[in-house]
Amino acid sequence: MDETETSTRKSGHSILNCMANSSGVSAPRELILIGGGHTHVLLLRELGKNPLRTVRLTLVSDVKDAPYSGMLPGHISGIYSRAEMQIDLPRLCNFAGARFIHAKVLGLDLARKQVLLPDNVAPVAADLVSINVGGTPSMEDVAGAEPWAIPAKPVPELLRGWQRAVATAPGGMGPFHIVIVGGGAGGVELALAMHSQVGHKAAFTIIHGAPQLLPGHNSGVHRVMSRLLEKRGIATIMNARVVEVVADSVRLDDGRCLPADFTFWVTRIAPPAWLAESGLDTTPDGFVRTGPTLQAINYSWIFAAGDVVAIEGQKLPKSGVFAVRMAKPLENNLRAYLSGNSLRNYKPQRRSLSLIGTADGRAVASYGCLAGRSVLFWHWKTWIDRRFMRQFQNLPVPFSSIP
Fold it and tell me: What region holds the FAD/NAD(P)-binding domain (predicted)?
């Protein structure tokens, strides 16, 4: 944590305590947001426009710049700069009248209602907590994956790995191999984006554990993407799992050994281990179990949203589309909880539009049973992504903010 942030937090506590003691008025209740995911950045923006008057708001995040996942493949393919796809969290907090604490959350003390930070930082007291942290691709069961594979999340780690790959790629055609583990929409879009930059220097292979790429999408999308990957010379291996990663190769469960100068891991995500270790009710794979109001099953003062949540009775894909749509229901329910009013159930959309960039000025649209690829869909995707990011640019300083 930065020294200025630590001192600001301590002085803020002192000021609030003095105000409470001298005036007899209770100090504001503490709402702690853990993580700067898509749901929380939209929540902060709304709270900047319509503040919670009797609440002190704090965001705790281990990064200062939150990447927008929708623009990541475009950044890798050279369309967007890094700055264009990142949200400045301290600046957003300033707009929302919130404290920003740059630190990694280590856990929760549920009995004391505290958010636990590194040893040199005092725990943060909480009356209400909302969790919107991202996961990382699950690699712990694969030998050699953690030291040698490059996970798709956190994004800074992916980008560092990609920069190494670009710098290492030979100047001409040669035995340079990039393996992407995971054939979902994220893995395929990432492969196409990377191929657009170094495809003339490297051989690409996507390894997927199911019989079909892009699970959850319709057969039209499967056909379009399969033809496109074949045309680009990107090999695909289906119904196979990587069981070992070493410096220059990966070994599959059928015994095959494939050359891999760089291995990118884009499989299903795993949530932070501290969630289950804190005593929250979680699924067997560690996601926070909540009711439809987004409240944790066993602690009503804890809310969760985005990829980290497992809502009872709902099976949602881990997608930014759903995380974005949770922002307003989360805001409404936080306000209702604080005011003692009834909370409402979050009702996810039945269908969602997916626009998957193909790194050639086109995108594939996937909606229900409909599929297509065109320049128009790419312009549509670009318009949506840029519109999302404009919400966090040129934010005015609020007229009033909580100390």
Answer: 31-326
User: 31 - beta bridge partners?
Assistant: 57, 128
* R_g of the chain, CA atoms, integer Å: 22
Half-sphere exposure of residue 211, counting CA atoms within 13 Å on the CB side? 1
Q: Which of 104, 179, 186 is nearest to 153 (CA)?
A: 186
Task: Give yes or no for a contact between 11 and 34, defined as CB atoms under 8 angstroms apart.
Answer: no
> pLDDT by residue (tens digit) across 51-84?
998 899 999 999 999 999 999 999 999 999 999 9
Q: Residue 26: pLDDT above 70?
A: no
Query: In the chain, pLDDT over 70 holds for what percent of residues?
Result: 91
Q: Could you tell me the CA-to-CA distances from 310 to 15, 289, 290, 346 in Å, in that order?
A: 39, 5, 6, 12
pLDDT of residue 121: 83
Residue ranges and CATH numbers for the domains of the chain are 3-135+271-350 (3.50.50.60), 138-267 (3.50.50.60), 354-383 (no CATH)
Q: Does pTM top 0.70 for this prediction?
A: yes
Peptide linkage before 156 cis (omega within 30 of 0): no
Please state, in angstroms and rounded to a whole number, the distance separating the CA atoms of residues 43 and 87.
13
pLDDT at 130 over 50: yes
Q: What is the dihedral of CA 187, 192, 194, 199, to 10 degrees?
A: 130
Burial class (CB in 10 A: 0-12, 13-18, 19+), 111: exposed
The pair of three-digit structure tokens given for residue 90, joined into one six-digit string: 């301290």
The yes-or-no verdict on residue 259 having pLDDT over 70 is: yes
Position 401 pLDDT exceeds 70:
no
Minimum mean pLDDT among 5-14, 75-84, 117-126, 206-215: which range? 5-14
Cβ atoms 180, 204 nearer than 8 A = yes
> Do 346 and 321 form a contact (C-beta atoms < 8 A)?
no
Q: List, in order, residues 6 or more apart from 226 with CB less than 8 Å away.
A: 213, 236
Q: What is the mean pLDDT of residues 89-108?
A: 96
3-class SS shares of the chain: helix, strand, coil, % to 5: 35, 25, 40
